[in-house]
Amino acid sequence: MGSPSLDQLRLLYIVNRFTHAIGDNGKRRWMKDLPLSVLVYHGIHSGIFSDYDWAPSLVEFHGVKMYGKVSQEAHADLKKLQAAQLLEKLHLSTCLYDSIRAYRATPDAARVLESLPDESRVALDAVLECSHCSSLQEVLAYVERDHQHWSPVRNSTVSYCPTCCTVRRAAEGPVIDVVNGAGRIDIDFFDIAEIVYRTRPTSPGGFG
Fold first, then answer.
1. Lesser CB count within 10 Å: N end or C end of the chain?
2. Number of folded domains in the chain?
3. Whole-model pTM?
4. Residue (of 80, 74, 85, 83) closest to 48 by Cα position
5. Domain containing 105: what range?
6. SS3 of 175, please?
């Protein structure tokens, strides 16, 4: 790969922001594929990426395959960034034996990201950081349930600030309490619109 494109730099910046921080175990963090896909879609919706688009694609969520708004262009760029040794990739297996991927920026990423324009950094930080305290947002994907019948209502994805919000467990799913009136963004990653259409059989040129 030659010089990274602007969208590749933006994608690398997102992974670097989330994996540069040191976790509780004293090691650098990994970013799972689903939260990254959610943030990429949020970035597309916010006008951050120039050439990325999204389409309904199957993703693994709590042991079930379902459709989410995934950018295939971003996934292709993840492979290119990995081939350029700017990203590390980790394959994981859940307790339900699902295979998931996680990514982490390499030390060389910081050097390459020096060419990212300041206006792109500002636009990305506006999506990734809390508008109240500038803390890095976290992504939470969960199943909302009917608290009376325990039946799934819908799948939700939320970007929230761990400083301005508190997350507590409830029968219907996680409840995010907003403390300072900011720090929560609902992202419609799983909300795939149904399009009604009709088809009829055709034969090019007709029969005889």
1. C
2. 1
3. 0.82
4. 74
5. 6-128
6. strand
